[in-house]
Design goal:
Blueprint: E1 5-6, E2 9-10, H1 14-31, E3 49-54, H2 64-71, H3 74-77, E4 80-85, H4 92-97, E5 103-106, H5 109-118, E6 122-127, E7 135-139, E8 154-157, H6 161-173, E9 181-184, H7 189-194, E10 200-203, H8 205-212, E11 218-221, E12 235-239, H9 240-245, H10 247-266, H11 268-278, H12 284-294, H13 310-322
Parallel strand pairs: 3-4, 3-5, 8-9, 8-10
Antiparallel strand pairs: 1-2, 5-12, 6-12, 7-10, 7-11
Helix pairs in contact: 1-5, 2-10, 2-11, 8-12, 10-11, 11-12
Length: 350
């Protein structure tokens, strides 16, 4: 899938690009070997066990808890040395499922559920960002004040059935009649909206930063206000075989991540400084802006950071099923799906 670019870097964002990617790699994961071996095969110097961790996207604000844990030696305290696999042409989900990474991020419930339903041998073990920060945006100058006004308009995204179902469900809930036209973007969401190539697009807090540079104003629609089940932000997946063989490593990783992401909530400046130190390519001003905007999305109502709600993930699965966008390994829409085997809080500190 082609990626959009902003300032020379990929801009296609978490939920949609990872969901679209997941739809294309299901067969690969089902046929690939997922046995990554035991921890004894990855031991490094100093008595630490090297663990490969895949990023879901370019380093940014959502990764500050991970960076803090790395910079402050929290993983080392658990006997772990983290080896980062940067985002590339192969989605993080597929890297984890095929055993090329033992752990890593996926973007949301939507992408995780797509992977689970396709038979990918992974399990969600940590919720780094409880709430999805993305919204559906239109130019304020468009005069569109409700999703109902998107009927017959053009939505720019990544061509996935999930996007189309989400927008159309919002239109119907808002009392609109008709559906949206979907096109695949060749530029970033902000660029497409400002150039009036599309009427609506998904945007994230870092897009707000970009728009603020020239004073562009948007009207935003939150999907949950229009009947869409609550989606999550970033989750951590584990390769099933590796986690089962190395429960202490999985628990140590979850503990370090909890401390790192709690620090990101309590002291975002320190976490952002760690992010810049760990990934020097990031824009500090962009990270600080995004962190402030996303602060509300870090609040976990189900317990300490990292805690997952099976009920909320099940609710999103049920919503996807209703929209006929959750498909099995055979590519056919599922009539039901139980998320219980695919999510666990077992590795979190008690």
């Amino acid at each position: 899938m082609a990626r959009n670019t902003r300032e020379g870097a990929p801009v296609s964002r978490r939920s949609v690009i990872r969901l679209g990617s997941a739809l294309t790699v299901g067969a690969l994961v089902l046929t690939a070997c997922s046995d990554t071996g035991g921890a004894e095969n990855t031991a490094s110097g100093g008595g630490l066990t090297t663990v490969t961790f895949a990023l879901d996207y370019l380093p940014g604000a959502t990764h500050n808890g991970l960076a803090y844990a790395m910079q402050k030696g929290l993983f080392a305290k658990e006997g772990i040395k983290i080896k980062i696999l940067p985002v590339g042409t192969t989605p993080s989900d597929a890297l984890i499922g095929t055993g090329q990474a033992q752990f890593g991020f996926t973007s949301s419930y939507a992408s995780a559920l797509t992977n689970f339903a396709a038979g990918m041998p992974v399990k969600s073990i940590f919720l780094a960002m409880p709430h999805d920060p993305s919204v559906i945006s239109v130019l304020k100058s468009s005069g569109i004040t409700s999703p109902a006004g998107l009927a017959g308009k053009t939505y720019g995204g990544y061509g996935t059935p999930m996007e189309l179902a989400l927008i159309n469900a919002m239109i119907a809930k808002a009392g609109g009649h008709g559906t949206v036209k979907q096109v695949v973007l060749s530029v970033g969401s902000i660029e497409a909206l400002k150039a009036k190539k599309v009427d609506a697009a998904s945007t994230w807090p870092d897009d707000d930063y970009t728009a603020a540079q020239d004073g562009t104003e948007f009207t935003k629609f939150q999907p949950t206000d229009y009947g869409v089940a609550e989606n999550s932000g970033v989750l951590v997946l584990a390769n099933n075989s590796y986690a089962q063989k190395n429960p202490k490593i999985a628990s140590g990783l979850a503990k370090a991540l909890r401390e790192g992401y709690q620090a990101a909530i309590d002291d975002p400046k320190a976490a952002n400084a760690a992010l810049v130190a760990q990934f020097p390519s990031v824009n500090p001003k962009l990270v600080d802006f995004t962190t402030r905007v996303q602060a509300k999305d870090m609040v976990n109502s189900d317990g300490p950071i990292g805690t997952q709600s099976v009920q909320k993930m099940q609710a999103y699965a049920d919503w996807m099923i209703k929209q006929e966008t959750l498909t099995g390994a055979n590519g056919k829409a599922l009539k039901s799906f139980d998320v219980t085997p695919f999510v666990t809080n077992t590795y979190l500190p008690k």
